[in-house]
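Subject: mismatched residue count in predicted assembly?

I count 578 residues in my input, but I want to confirm that the predicted structure covers every chain. Input:
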Amino acid sequence: MKIAVCVKQVPEGDSRIDPGTKRLDRGGEGALNAFDANAVEEALRLKDSTGEGEVVLLSLGPAKAQDALRKALAMGADRAVLISDDAAAGSDLVATSYALAKALERESADVILFGQQAGDSDGAVLWAAVADRLRLPVVSQAAEITHAGGKLTVKRQTEFGYDVIEAPLPAVVAVSDAINEPRYPSLKGIMGAKSKPQETVTLSDLRVEADRAGEQGSRTEVYALNDPPARADSKKIDDDGNAAQVIFDFLAEKRLV
Amino acid sequence: MSTLVFLEHHGDELLKGSLGVLAKAATLGGGDVAGVVVGSGVRTLADGAGKFGAAKVYVADDAQLEAPLPQPRVDVIARLVRDTGIDTILFGNSVLTADVAAGLAARLDAGINWDLVDLVQEDGKLVGKRPALQDSVYVDVGWTSEPRIALFRSGSFDPNETGGSAEVEDVAVELEDFSSAARMVDQAHEESEGPSIEDAPVIVAGGRGLGGPENFTLVEELAKALGGAVGATRAVVDAGWYPYATQVGQTGKTVAPKLYIACGISGAIQHKVGMQSSGVIVAINKDTNAPIFEFSDLGVVGDVHEVVPKLTELVKQRKSS
Ligand SMILES: Cc1cc2nc3c(=O)[nH]c(=O)nc-3n(C[C@H](O)[C@H](O)[C@H](O)COP(=O)(O)OP(=O)(O)OC[C@H]3O[C@@H](n4cnc5c(N)ncnc54)[C@H](O)[C@@H]3O)c2cc1C
Ligand SMILES: Nc1ncnc2c1ncn2[C@@H]1O[C@H](COP(=O)(O)O)[C@@H](O)[C@H]1O
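Triage response: the counts match. Full output below for your records.
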């Protein structure tokens, strides 16, 4: 079984929006989006359960996103494709889903996995757009996936309880962060990752027209950045062994104990 | 401006979240506000939407639309938007609507802004208010083309029952093959046992930071000492550590106790929307950068295994003295 996993590099630590470009500042250190490690883990498990196949990573991002991809390769993925192009900077959902769909078309994977949400955009939406472009069934928020007889059975939580949804392959599935415990890369995995294929493709390699990428291909814009509403006083302390007492005194002062 | 609000339903009720968005749409002014109800046997629901501010309600009523799956809904709405020239489509966020809205954005090449908490007319433009990066910055966002799609954070608006009745119009249902490929095979709606956490004056909630289901005794004991109930995050509910009935957040319960103590909870937006109206919020988390600290009245950077038992002891002592 061939499994494609869409993964994103997100800024490490605190993120900020550049007031000039009004885009997320991607200048600092990057990390693999933590929620995407669950998708990589699930891909590796699916591959193992079928006994053969390939796990290929796909990402749209700056050149240095290869570092985040290497982390996922170290977990055990087989190869990575990074769509990187200056003209893709500033892509919104419409543009990102278009470029990713073009790259996914070339792969013809049986299963296309997504993480639960990107830590920087908190969208939890991209998969549905990609699935629509690929004209494939989509199931989101998967807390459990089983594969049998050419189809996937997905259990997931909604506002009303649990759904069980079946989808024939090929299918797009976005996993919840509770689906598994992502493995840590082993030393062997980390060493091995360096020699795994990491391809970088441009928009023209994928035949993505210039007016469908980046700001030109986007349909949303950012007008202004504002401060969040002021908050009432809040306190933060480090536990030096006495934190329980501090909490207790605080609650007593508020007449909550 | 001609606005369409997706009216989500469950059983024989329209959801409060989408009725809230309908109320918001009615305040934008300058045009028509219609709703759309998609499902099977939903005509009477469409009738009922008039009371909440819809002048017109489109209804797609078809057995194929019975299960709450997104892709058939994309087919129905895309066609409706193309046929009517609707320029703005609004959704209250849910597991279902997020997928409908994003699928629709791709289908119509329409801009989508999500996690909005408000939408206003400013200088003749529609501007969405979007808290971003763990709500540390409020971004004004807009659209460069029509149609525009907006997805609002759950609980952003209250419904407004104005009375009135809607003109109901049937819309055609024609589904793409791939849209009907996924099938709902089971829907388990767990009935909760015991008192609901929605009424508890104090909630002590546990997240993945507890480390395992056995450690929920820590929060149970503290809750008991405080005369409160236990809450949980989706991560631990999905992992089977604690029952769904205790889940707080977008896909769980919305609570507003006098006191909320978050133990080993990161404070994701989807959790926050379910508990941010609590009177006093105390958080214990070992990661000083955890988003939960951004909206806690008292934050403790520490290990729950250390802090929680000690706190329970102090509360118990106070009681017995
Ligand atoms: C559509 C959708 C709907 C969702 N609905 C909900 C919902 O209704 N409710 C909900 O809760 N979530 C919901 N989520 C999931 C949400 O985004 C988060 O993934 C989830 O809330 C994380 O749960 P958590 O805080 O327990 O786990 P994590 O995010 O893994 O956080 C665990 C925290 O514990 C801390 N920690 C670890 N060990 C210790 C220790 N020993 N002492 C102290 N702290 C420690 C860590 O620093 C970390 O901050 C939803 C997501 C989506 C996409
Ligand atoms: N630039 C990107 N490249 C590849 N995959 C992405 C990208 N952005 C988001 N994703 C995937 O889409 C999921 C949801 O992202 P979002 O809808 O932005 O929250 C993430 O967990 C990733 O799996």
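Residues 304-320 of chain B form the longest helix (17 residues). Marking this ticket as 'not a bug'.
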